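[agent] plan:
  1. take the single chain provided in the ticket
  2. run structure prediction with default settings
  3. attach structure tokens to the ticket
  4. add a short note for the reviewer (M.T.)
[agent] executing step 1
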Amino acid sequence: MSGKLRLGVNIDHVATVRNARGSAYPDPVRAAKLAEAAGADGITAHLREDRRHIGDGDIERLAAELTVPLNFEMAATDEMQAIALRHKPHAVCIVPEKREERTTEGGLEVAKDENRIAHFIAPLADAGCRVSIFIAADRAQIEAANRIGAAVVELHTGAYCDFHYEGKFSERDAELERLRDMAAFAHSLGLEVHAGHGLTYETVGPVAAFPEVRELNIGHFLIGEAIFLGLEASIAEMRRLMDEARA
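[agent] step 2 finished; step 3 output follows
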């Protein structure tokens, strides 16, 4: 469990701003390179089925031009599997996806769909991609992810962050305790543990302090802060808070 806590920067919402005008800018690949220069250990991009932000061309360029690992978030569909097998990113993170949702709501239901997901991820693992499953901090889901051969679980921190900003501090603390326990449980099974969703400067510290967590994936907040601070400063502050919590 030693070693630096890695920061994966999700650049989806640079593409959201670009697509609002249908223009060529701001360029998410440029953002990825800036993030890399600012201390990101990897870049995360979610190619949604409806292509609402990241596009196929973005994934192609990220795969070709990045020098840090690319974490390709995707739904468990045949189309996405084919794209991942074509580009062979360092990591693929399987996430639930409903077309009408604004952002990823909750973790993937692995336990009730174990057989299908096991068959879905096998070719990805065979191609050399590290397979991550985005799940709630739930024992049954972690056990299922382990059984199907995932290398990594990414624990969904959205509920913890939502409780914090709604001022529901007892619920927040209970969710944080659940995240802490399930990070330790997943690690005990031999899974690499990541975490992400909704993390901000206010909420990152307690999660960054979990010794079993090896990587945090943060996007929307950093891109929002970049409007005010610039992307490099936004990322540098998150990196500082993560390192401080870890120390």
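[agent] step 4 note for reviewer: Strands lie at 6-10, 42-46, 70-74, 91-94, 130-135, 152-156, 192-196, 213-218.
[agent] ticket updated
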